[in-house]
Amino acid sequence: EFLEASGPQIIKLAMSKKVNDDLKVELIGILGTIQLGDEWYDRLRNSAFMEFVSSHLGLGYVEDDLVLEAVCLIAKMAENDKCLEFIASKNFILKKLLIKFLESKLLKMVFGIFFEKSDDDEFVYQILYIVYRLLFKDLITDEILSNNRLMDYCVEALGDKNPRIRRLVNDIADLIMVFWDFKEIFINNFL
Q1: What tens digit of pLDDT does each residue of 36-92 get?
Q2: DSSP symbols for 31-65
Q3: Whole-structure pTM value
Q4: Which of 33, 44, 105, 160 is 20 to 30 A from 74, alpha carbon to alpha carbon?
């Protein structure tokens, strides 16, 4: 409860230019554990906050610890349905930069990290959790299912040595089967 009440101050401190990377890792890590509900949605719509999160997703430019904590933060925000819809939005606009993205820049960066860090269990788990939430809410489902690289990884991960990843990939596979079954029923009965 204390952390939730302190969330806005922690965000402000984490975004401060005066904070060193070690403290920033810890602050973003704390943010990745806080339930802020719709406040996360308000933050996502803030271009300065989006710029802050995006700036910590650059593999090779930012410490891996910062990238991981930023991915965990996105996974936490993905627990909120409004945030998840915003993250998945195809007309994602950063007003400050006046750029209209053809697809979600944030998700593009997250999936890039996924393929770059596919040997790191914590990165994999957090990003697969985001994929699970997107499928569960039926957001960008076709895009996920048509990503052959991601689907190949999920098939291979069914035998992963990490039980958390195996369970999550099994849950993703269950959702995928529901979508495929639904499409097959629809095509056979209505088209």
Answers
A1: 778 888 888 777 888 888 888 776 667 888 888 888 888 888 888 888 888 777 544
A2: HTT---THHHHHHHT-HHHHHHHHHT--BTTB-HH
A3: 0.68
A4: 160
